[in-house]
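Think of the structure tokens as a kind of shorthand, similar to the way a musician reads notation: each symbol stands for something richer, in this case the local conformation of the backbone. In the example below we present two proteins back to back. Begin with the first one, reading the sequence and then the tokens, and try to describe in your own words what changes along the chain.
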Amino acid sequence: MIFLNRLKLPALAVIVLVTIFASCEEDLTTVGSGVVGGEPFKNNKAVYDVFAYNKKIKAVSTNRLPIYQLGIYDDPLYGKTEAQVTTQVLLPSGNPTFGVTTQTNEDDPSSVTQIPENETIDSVYLYIPFLTNPTGDADLDGLIDELDDLPLDPNSDTDEGGLTDSQENSRGSNPLDASDDTDDTDFVANQFAKTFDLDSIYVDGRLYSDNMPNPGFNLKVQRSTYFLRDLDPSVNFQEAQEYYSSQEFAPTFVDEVIYDSEVSSEPIVISSEQIPLRKTDDESTEDVDESTQFSYLSPGIRVALDKVFFQENILDKEGSTDLESQANFKEFLRGLHFSVSSGGNDVMFLFNLKLANITVSYSYDTADSEGVVTAKGGQTDLVLNFLRDSFTSTGQLASTDGNAVNTFVNEVYPPEITDKLDTGENASEIYLKGGAGTFAEIKLFDEVNGLEVINEIKSNNWIINDANLVFYVADENLGVEPPRLYLFNSETNAILPLSATDADGLSEEYGGIIETSSDGEGVKYTVNVTTYINNLVLNDADNVTLGLTTTPSLFLGTVANAMLENGEERELPLANTLSPLGTVLYGSAVDANEDKKLQLEIFYTETN
């Protein structure tokens, strides 16, 4: 899933730039004429008032999110946001056995093969994969567009080695190395680090690109001493416990440091290349030395954690009540706390915590059938997760084990923003900010219910062809701009009525995509509300108060609880929580820039 796509594909630009009519005049009267059923008709455009009200969010529910934020994002308009993550740690299963035999058999052996195994950690690595853009390889030839000679042609030969990029992808050879195209008896497939198109990484308030000179940051991992409950005791443990973005766990509820790149003076450097892992030689294949080969992880963070911590708190606990069940282990270890500080750059990235893990590699003593012991004769890995999904036999999501909370620490907004929030007045500028930020409520036609205008439209017997809300960007001093907006029913938090051709909600209805200038600056968002307006006119639906937020994806239709600055508790689209990005748009209460004021545009056919 693309969460904060850069919208660089021409197809997306076509969607938002396509015009509704082949020709259009500048005035708001007749824009075309023709005949419907033998009767003359006129195609017209009408504009109506729109009222917008800014709302400040104090905190949002942030546990068990589909996507987490970690790091520091410095927005030129809204200031800095620091995102931290506090998470439980999950064993592969309750009461795990390390090595070959259980701790009970090690302590009280029944045969010569059951020996004290002396499990000893060799290494512990934390891995957090970055998000990648799945549309970054337009021709699906295995080479991202930025490196591809002809990004729309899978038969191009970028390295000019004789094989097409697509052929090299199938063969497992390097499409950027011509020497890898030749036949070689020693050839081993996929022995090179692929480059990925990284997504949703922000460096010093800008979207990350490979052209940035080695951006780096510091990561700290600490033991959490806070017990994250899975169920809420205030409702007799019948509902999941909610945690909010305003809850800070550090420094009060953190303990041992098990990794700190700042102490080692080795900041983490962002790379779009895969991470190579050297394989272990397989003794059963005498003619091949696998230790000269590599497997690869997707780009991300991979750092070595404190081995002593995991030896004492996991391996040495084999057979104890602390590891007897997942519940006991969560109570014992509590979890880990992740935070980021500047290592030369302010960096924030989005990631899927379900794909992150800790790999504990350890050795143990073995014994043959005669009881002859080989020190460190066995080696294996123990993988610890943070969040883990369980599925039914039909592939449906059954449950998610584990709990993790995203904490957002926001700088106080400047007075020119705070003075315009929660005023109850029609806004001249609309402030939208993801996370625990801001959103807007929208009323169409008037500040009550718009019935007078709706009834007038009905009496005119118009055929409504298209209706749009056009939001113009009101400030050039912005950071990374949200790729799209999301309009929803603010009274029920449900999606708005969908057209018959969009029953699955996969079109662009109610989700305006940003339109940019030639220099990449945001100009406007156009939100299509045709189905909503037709529902008011044809089906006598209520003209509800609408909500407007940023969103990284229209397909995240769920809602989550939020606490507003005015003390109100309500539900808001979850998607708005997943992004740090913000913008400011023109409202309708503007004196200057009259041509950019917020209005509802309705294109209709009038029959005589």
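Once you have a description of the first chain, move to the second and do the same.
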Amino acid sequence: MGKILRTSKLTTLSELIIVIVVLGGILSAVYYYSPGLRVSESKQLDQLNLNKEEVDNVTTAEKIPLPDTDLSGEVKDKPLVRIAAYAWNAQSGIIVANGGPKTTEGSLMEKNGVNLEIIRQDWLSELRNMQMKFIEEFDRGEEFPDADKSAFAIMMMGDGAPFYISTMQQALDDKFGKDKYHVQVVGAVGLSYGEDKLIGPPSWKVDPKSMKGALISAVLGDGDWVTAVNYAFANGLKVNPDVSTYDPEAVNFYPSQDDDYIKSAEELIKSQKSGWTVPLKEVKNGKLTGQVINKKIDGCATWTPGDKKVFDEISGVTDIVSTREFNNQMATTVIAVKEWAVKHPEIVSNILKSALTASNQMKQYDEWRVRASEAIAATYDLETPKYWYDMFKGMKGNKNGIEYNMGGSRVFNYADVMQYYGITDGTNRYKAVYNQVSSYLTELNPFGFNESVKRVVPYDEAVNLYFIKNINDIDAGSAYKADYSKTADKVMASGEWNINFDTGSDHISSSSAQTLETIYNLLIQAEDTKLKLEGHTDDTGSAESNYDLSQKRAQSVVNFLRGKGIPQSRFQSVIGKGEDEPIESNSSAAGRAKNRRVVITLLN
């Protein structure tokens, strides 16, 4: 949900987190020294990774009685367990399963024998501290640690898990000894589906290249920031990683005050209404020019209710891109203490079972959605039930002829979570997200991350699906299947990939293995999109032979993707353009290399 960093006073770890994730999302960073200062050159990534097949199953089930608001007497004598979580609408299922912040009479948690407290905590550092405190007590022999501000599990966005788990693991190893304790993903209970977004002028949507030179306020490293960066990279734009400089040839970011997503919205509003500007050193090609640019904020990356605040206050802006397009990017992920969870698997599985069952009720019965909004408002002590109800399904608005969208969340039932992790259909959507974020950390090693944190915990160690698979007596439902039967004509993103082939051949070189995996991850995370592929060559050889070669090379990419499970019906067109559309001069080896490419366009 866009909550990787939300602290107002950063700890050393939090500052490290900002640095790592900010640079981790930028696949390269080159440092230059100019008048004694180091600045980063704006870089362009190949593209983003997202999956767009909608995980949204509905299991037909009889309506279950709604939970009461009175606290449960049936489970009060059972050991209390706690989960700490951000204020996030996609957690509606687990919260209504509990009846509110504490287990209530008639709730699904009560039915499944769980005495649960859900605690709102919007600061990442405090989520970490709560799990650490739990582990400290557990290490002293407490089977059910119950100290205030301790939790056996937290909930956060799944794309932040590689980072959270890896930094937490290093802290645990340092404190208790290597591999004595671990934290693991044990499941997911929902998705952000529109509420995390980039807001800016409509021209950014019509012509993404018009974002060049923009300044966007955001919580750096936050999921909303990731969405904005992904959109830039997907459309071939450079991103300036140095927040103290301004690159007119790149997308620039301003770090919002106190790492607060509401401040991101307020900074855009203040700049647009009062003309407030940010002084930034101008940089070109990674070198300072000596000029200072006073730049207005052009857009912001935020989430609900920040989006509503912007649309209420100013005109001339809309939602450019959101988790509705990047719809599998941000799963509401449960991260638990492994050693405690494996000792109490029934509690963990029953918590998940309760949440997934309640979510399925929400999908079918409005009364459950209403009750969920009441439970959310009580748990977060924020806004009204009607607010959470409306924002869960998402709202549309129109201001001065410009349409915009606000909110949008989803909850997972059992069929959804089984599909999301690839248990039912073999396509592990979350693994694609996890591995891509991990690669940013391992390949770049920004500021010696690998030396400081030792390693990024790999997916197979970080994710434990036993607790999902251990659920019994729950309707699974039918898996969602994307419909590729219709012709798509709206371009969501278009990027050029330099894939190496053997000379004069359509055989893909082994040096392009990582690029192909990145493409595959992109498509797995954007499964609802149809695809258009165009092959291009340089001018070596005859024009006629290059048409044939470019067609065969584009088809080779299709064949690779089909071998990985992408269905043929998803490819709307595969065309060889030969040497007709160069993007650089063929007079140099470097130019010819850039012209040998495959363009992949995502359509919806």
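Compare your description with these statements about the second chain. Residues 163 and 456 are 7 Å apart (CA to CA).
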